[in-house]
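question for whoever is on the cluster today: can someone run the full assembly for these? two chains, 847 residues total. i dont have access anymore since they changed the login thing
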Amino acid sequence: MAEAIPVILLTGYLGSGKTTLLNHLLGLPAIASQRLALIINEFGPLGVDGKMVDSPGHAKYEINKGSVFCVCTKTQFVKVLKEIADSDSCDLVLLEATGIAETADLESFFDEPGLAGRFALQANLCLVDPVSFVKVAAFLKAATNQAAAADGIVINKTDLADSDELKKLQEVLRGINPRAAITTTQYGVISEEFLLSLRHEGGVDAGRMRSEAPSNIVAVAFEGGEVFDKELFDAVLREHAERILRLKGNIKFGLGVRFVEMVSGQAIDKAPKADLDETSFVVIGYGISKQQLHDAFCGAMI
Amino acid sequence: MTLQMTSLERVTKAIKCDSVDRVPWVPFVGCHAGALQGVTATEYLQSSDLIVEGAKLAVERYKADGVPVTFDLQMEAEVMGCRLEWADDNPPAVVSHPLGNGTKLEDLRVPRADEGRIGLTLEAARRIRKNQPDVAVYGLITGPFTLALHLLGTDIFMKMFDNREYVNKLMEFCRDVATAMAGYYIEAGCDVIALVDPMTSQIGPDQFREFVRPFMTPVFESIREKGALSSFFVCGHAEQNIPEMCACKCDNVSVDENIPLDFVRETCLANNVSFGGNLQLTSVLLLGKPVDAQKNAIACLEVAGEKGFLLAPGCDLPYATPPENLEAIPLMITDPYQRDIVKAMVVESDGGDKLDLQEYGQFRKVVVDIITLDSEACAPCQYMVDAVRKVAPQFEGIVEWREHKIKYKESLVFMTSLMVHNVPTICIDGQIKFVSRIPPRDELIAAIQERINEKFRMKIQRRRGEFYLLGADNEATARYRERLEKAIAELGSDTRVTTISDEQSIASFGVAMVQTPAVVMATYRLKSTCTTPDIAVIKEWIKDM
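^ ran it for u. tokens below:
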């Protein structure tokens, strides 16, 4: 049997810059010199995404289905991969996954009957947007699972976050995936050395992670008539500054409702947009249990 | 003995967890009905005639107890402004999300029964109902969370933090759409309304409880009030949400191959909710042969049992599913003889290739076998191999380990011979020790150490033995004894010599005095420690002697 075709997998939540990175990769000599097949699987305005890829002369396959659900997509994937393997004209596959893809599922597609041994994952690259990642990770299982399974993590759009925020994000990502190489960049520019240094190591026990919500990033919401003591509330923010990744919303204090937003330990406090009379905020914590986070804020209620 | 039921009775009773004459079979034929008629998925989904004919073929060819009107989770979204991209061999794709492109939530309204393709699909539902009075007709509607994703896009995950009120309002709207759609289908004569909400597999139970359950429960309540049955379809890795799905008060939960059916059975039946699934869509139904489909069906049936179970694929059947694979399935439910034949075929093919491993583990070293899919391709497998790799050197050459990748035939044979059914699995000297679970380092060391101790004990005990020297108290006997003792001393063996001179005792060994001097050698074998075995077990030892 012919040698397995290497595959570079790109994952990352919508808006993390996968298409920009893909275009950048297409310009790298190590990639450009190969006979490529691009597989693009994006949820949403997929046609647009597919067209944005600058790939004259390369075979391009778009996997897009209204039923974006894994099992259904699998059928299309298997078909496309068979076509690529049989074409005998491809040296490297670049696969851009949907923002909500489970990496373990994608990897398992390569083991389907008729495909086993024909492809070999060379590197699994996960893009992270410093602003959206921590917000989304608390709600979307795939966001954390993608980072956990990556061989290399690219923190993109670093211009959107300050250095404290980036430092914290690296700590969070290290906690999720201690073995991945991490690099920071803007506009998806990564060096060829970084890409070539990556070796696929199979990722984490994705089966286990999938069955649980990401446990190290938690979200707690408060809604309703609860009234908070401003001093106690501020004390909670100070005490847990290291563990609060994000906080945002309206908090009813004794003197009225205020809008509070906290990012990387810094809280701002201003008048709410509308005339509100109720508490409604969400806090995303890291390295603290949901219950502890909940209890901490309950302790600040009047 | 339960009297034979009609298909509709069978499905209805199974969904209610009542007893049935046999498990019902509900192939989810959607765009695959296009392939059955030689038309594209696009043509099929846009013609009530083709939808009606598709259902008829599904009932006739696949002997279905229940069929969906069709399977299209883009229909409601299209009416509300999502742009679709159509395909020949797939349902269409949603490629634009109106709420992400400037449309306001306030501007969206619940679709009417005659809008877009809803009208032609409802017309098809009415005709299918009329044509198939004894078959359960399923009306499939887009679940509220999946519809919300169609309308807003994946921004919904961001908005769960940034704008919860908006997500709640959007979910309220999607709840209203689902309630209206359920009403339309019930009016058209559907027996079961399935809310198909695969995107809920993307979130954990906390988010499910907050953003899905409050909006899903009222839809199921409205279905119940209108006298129909309800089902909650999910696909993908939604294991974590099954208890929450049951808490939405649906009558039935249907899952795909990503969730273990035994877990679904336990969880659902404990909540008095019936369950369905989970034939493998791609690997088996699309790419396999009829016998693979039959084996898969048997596996599902055996795990699920009869109570409250409906055999079904996990999701919309792929367009190009070979019909013969689906035609082969109902026999596995209706004909026990055929089922036994297929089961025997499994045994036959395995039996021919089995290794004799009776003596496995008698080797001087301790052998750790790791049965994997392939540690380079499967993360849990890799972690299991790593765990063993790290621990083995600590035993300084006493422990030998090897990986058996079942993608190779010989490894598969080895796996079957060791009676291993799951990967990855760790066996120590041929004994299954850790199944689908990566043992913590200390636990793995303890398991290996236990086997080493056991082997050591066995070795010591085996070396121990006794010579019975049978002979009169004379010189020949004494000389013999001397030689035995010398040999024992030279080998450093732990063996006793007992001389027996009494004629009656010698005869009890089956030896006559004229045959002396004679020697009977006895070896000792440790049979148990710290336990008092049953008499039956002791009898087996005696027989073994």
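summary bc i know u wont read the tokens: Chain B has three domains: 7-349, 366-458, 465-523. The CA atoms of residues 145 and 376 of chain B lie 36 Å apart.
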